Description:
Radius of gyration: 18 Å
Order of helices and strands: EHEHHEEHHHHHHH
Number of helices: 10
Low-confidence stretches: none
Bound molecules: glutathione
Strand order of the largest sheet: 2-1-3-4
Amino acid sequence: MDYALYYWSGIQGRGEFVRLALEDAGASYTDVARTEGDAAIAPFLDGEHPGVWPFAPPFLRAGRLLIGQTANILAWLGPRLQLLPEGESARVHAAQLQLTIADLVAEVHDSHHPVASSLYYEDQRDEAARRAADLRAHRLPKFLGHFEQVLQRAGGRHALHQHSYVDLSLFQVMAGLDYAFPHAMQRLRGDLPLLCALQQRVAERPNVAAYLASPRRLAFNRNGIFRHYDELDDPR
Length: 236
Ligand SMILES: N[C@@H](CCC(=O)N[C@@H](CS)C(=O)NCC(=O)O)C(=O)O
């Protein structure tokens, strides 16, 4: 099956969670906006394509199917890419964890855009400073502490006893947070040995390592979800 991934061309964003699954599995896919431009996304958002109407990117085309929402895309891809252990319990648990990751991603986004996505960061700097301080002090330790315990309960090496799309997404979360909040992450890392080890192991998976070294892996930047502003990180 050839997959077509639709996501904004200039950032990793939420598309990266899907991209990592496709890359790790060695799946054949086209990153449509990177080859045709972001304009290729518009007809789908305007509802001009047959099939289910996506609200926002990322969405995935697989034959006649059009699938939106990051966690939903991964839930569909997981069994097809051998990125999900067998069984109903694993399927449901993976979806639950991925939705929790989506909650964290939304909170990270809101740390630099707490008032409105449609405003520039520069127009909401004071609110962002307050929101980011709370994220660093309370929300990151709570989310990451939860994922650390999830790993511990599953034996230490994986979120779900064996490799899955959730491990790939946890890698992406840790990499993004390292970029956005390097000082806060330095402080938090000591309590997250299993997550840190997982991040390292995922980065060393052959297909992931090849992808990370390729031009397909865009650098984190200040247009994406994980953004670095010195003033939003722990003070040095
Ligand atoms: N819950 C959705 C969120 C999708 C989303 O917010 N996509 C962003 C880019 S990362 C977007 O283009 N949003 C446009 C909008 O919300 O108006 C998911 O996880 O896929």
